[in-house]
Each structure stands twice: as structure tokens, then as C-alpha cells.
From TrEMBL:
Region (Disordered), start-end ranges: 116-177
Biased composition regions of type Basic residues, renumbered to the chain: 161-177
Organism: marine metagenome
Protein known as: Uncharacterized protein
Alphabetical list of InterPro entries matching this protein: DUF7121
Short name of any one Pfam family annotated for the protein: DUF7121
């Protein structure tokens, strides 16, 4: 039975009971002292480890607190971001409308300016206008040069007396009472 002998720790001599009890008591005291020493060593290690564990617990709690603050700040930032996005969309829409209105006004002004330029164009600036005026004059059949008019005799001449007198405004300066 080699296995049993391997686990046999304490040998008791049944013939010497008193000696065996003393031996077992001494061995128990020795083991108890070793256990107390190990317990004392464990307490010393615990005193070294305890602040580290307290710091770990504090850091974990602080990390949780900061994480929760971050999460709530992130939620608030997401809300603000979504509101800003809506406002930016509105701003972009308004800006596009204003740009379209400005472009329409510029187009209208350019068209008006061009029509005014076209209306004020004289025959010496526009070949087409000059030829159309020449054609019109040739179609009428009568062309008078030199400032004489055919209907000059039909209109009565106005006399100098009939002319309305222009009103003179006073130009003197002075104190008025």
C-alpha cells in the first residue's frame, strides 16, 4: 500500500500514549504558530494592498461618474447638433432663396439696361436701325432738307404779347420782420 504510506503524515505509537499526545500537541502548537505567522504576514500584505484596492475602488467610482457625465453631455451635444443641423438646413434654404432672388433682380436689371441701351441707340451706332429709318423715309416719298416744313404756313405764329410772362423770384436777402 504505497499510496496510503504517501498520505500518512502523523505516526502514533499506541504503546506510549502519553508521549504520543505530547508529540501531537507540540506538532499542533508548531502548526498553530506557523498559521499565526502566516496570518500576521497576510495582515501585513493586506495593509499594503488595502490602499491600492481603495484607490482602485475610488478610481472605478470616479470613472463611472465621469463616464455618466460624458454620456449625458454627449446626449445634450447630440440634441444641440440635431437642432443646429435643422437651423443650418433652414439657413441654407433661405440663402438659396435670397441668391435666386438676387440673381433674378440682376437679370431683370440687365434686361432693362439692355432694353434702354437698345432704345437709346442712334442710327450711327446701329446699322440695322439706320437702314430701317432710311427705308421708312424712302417709303413716305417726301424728304425735305434744310429746315423748311411743308406745314409751316398752316400754323399761326404766336405774337410776343400772347406769351406768358415768367415769374421772377426775389433774390434779395435781408431780415424779415
Amino acid at each position: 500500500m504505497p499510496v496510503v504510506e504517501e498520505f500518512q503524515i502523523i505516526e502514533i505509537d499506541l504503546g506510549d500514549m502519553e508521549g504520543s499526545i505530547q508529540l501531537l500537541k507540540a506538532e499542533a502548537d508548531s502548526q498553530h504558530k506557523a498559521m499565526l505567522d502566516a496570518n500576521k504576514e497576510a495582515d501585513e500584505i493586506w495593509e499594503e494592498v488595502k490602499p491600492m484596492l481603495e484607490e482602485r475602488d475610488f478610481l472605478r467610482a470616479e470613472g463611472d461618474r465621469l463616464h455618466n457625465a460624458f454620456v449625458s453631455s454627449r446626449e445634450a451635444a447630440d440634441k444641440v447638433h440635431s437642432e443646429i443641423k435643422i437651423l443650418l438646413d433652414q439657413v441654407n434654404e433661405i440663402r438659396d432663396d435670397l441668391k435666386a432672388q438676387r440673381e433674378e433682380r440682376e437679370r431683370l436689371i440687365k434686361e432693362h439696361n439692355q432694353s434702354v441701351r437698345d432704345a437709346l441707340r442712334t442710327p450711327d451706332e446701329d446699322e440695322e436701325l439706320a437702314s430701317s429709318l432710311a427705308d421708312e423715309l424712302l417709303e413716305k416719298g417726301s424728304l425735305t432738307l434744310g429746315g423748311t416744313r411743308a406745314d409751316a404756313d398752316s400754323k399761326p405764329q404766336s405774337s410776343k404779347r400772347e406769351r406768358k410772362r415768367s415769374r421772377r423770384l426775389g433774390t434779395t436777402r435781408g431780415k424779415r420782420d
